[in-house]
Write a structure and sequence with these properties.
By secondary structure, the protein is α/β, with parallel strands linked by helices. It is 24% helix and 25% strand.
Length: 322
């Protein structure tokens, strides 16, 4: 099957590698459409998307565009005579004019078990909500966001203290199997039809903002741990550490945490370190495992404690939005 891949983020990398593996030559990626290069880093040097870099490495045709729906681009896509558009973490809405270029239209790989978590941050929101069962879905693209009929779903269970960045990589690999199974369905005679979603069960996973990471220690320990792990590595769960000795606040990002496995009654005010250097919360204690001081690398919480001579009574406080 001739495929045009619409992708930008590295969630698509395992799939593009699978589809171009010489040992699995049943399908051909004839073109990759991706977002334009963006300036990044202190030098503001233009940087290609992860998919563009991988596609060039694989010797594939690449089109970088900020609008996939331009008439001249649609005319160019027609020349590839592709049978399927495969969409993975692309970052642009694809019009019906583009979808109808393909005999099998466009199939999207989404990082949730639809109709749950429609939107831009599905696996992050799943961790933040404390969901154990997560997965991926392939579905036919329609005008409504993530609402098209479903071809294949594959699920897995989250691991203890698994963070969004780690679940992202696992689901990207799970997605390879989902895409391959979908291609088999499309090639069956007759092609297998997808199943409509139950819109009444739909939940949303809106794009994350920096403000989503401002922690409030009046929340309970389970909620805080889920938020911290779900927001790493972006935007990060931020707060300030205040030493009782100096009184100076230091901006930090909590990079990994878990709720303490005990039923101890919270005696300290929310945010205060107890004798174990666990953080008191609105309900239960929070054990910080990794932390990143502003402008520095992430480190174990023990290294942070040693470097700042942290002790019981020191505290974490909320960053107040302006």
């Amino acid at each position: 099957m001739r495929i045009i891949l619409f992708a930008s983020g590295d969630f698509a990398i395992p799939t593009i590698q699978s589809l171009t593996d010489p040992d699995h030559g049943e399908h051909q990626v004839v073109c990759v459409v991706t977002q334009p290069d963006r300036s990044a880093g202190r030098g503001k040097k233009a940087k290609p998307t992860p998919v563009k870099a991988e596609a060039i490495n694989l010797g594939l045709d690449v089109i970088a565009t900020d609008n996939v729906n331009r008439p001249e681009l649609i005319d160019r896509l027609k020349t590839y005579n592709a049978e399927l558009g495969l969409v993975i973490a692309f970052g642009q809405k694809i019009s019906s004019e583009v979808r109808e270029l393909f005999r099998h239209q466009c199939i999207n790989l989404h990082a949730s078990l639809l109709p749950e978590y429609r939107g831009a941050a599905p696996f992050q929101r799943a961790i933040m909500d404390g969901r154990e069962k997560v997965g991926v879905t392939t579905f036919r693209l329609v005008d409504r966001m993530d609402a098209g009929p479903v071809y294949v779903q594959r699920w897995t269970l989250t691991k203890p203290e698994e963070r969004a960045c780690e679940l992202h990589d696992r689901l990207a690999r799970v997605g390879v199997d989902a895409v391959n199974a979908t291609l088999q369905q499309l090639q069956s005679d007759p092609p297998q039809e997808p199943e409509p979603q139950d819109d009444s069960l739909a939940t949303l996973a809106p794009k994350l903002k920096k403000e989503d990471g401002y922690l409030r220690f009046t929340d309970n320990a389970d909620q805080l741990a889920n938020t911290i792990n779900g927001l790493w590595s972006w935007p990060g769960a931020k707060c300030e550490f205040v030493s009782g000795e100096t009184g100076n606040p230091e901006r930090v990002t909590l990079a990994m945490a878990r709720a303490a496995d005990d039923c101890a009654e919270v005696k300290e005010e929310p945010g205060v370190l107890d004798y174990r250097l666990y953080v008191a919360t609105g309900k239960g204690y929070l054990e910080i495992l990794e932390i990143q001081p502003a402008g520095k690398r992430a480190m174990s919480f023990q290294d942070f404690v040693n470097g700042r001579h942290a002790k019981p009574g020191d505290r974490f406080i909320t960053i107040e939005m302006a």
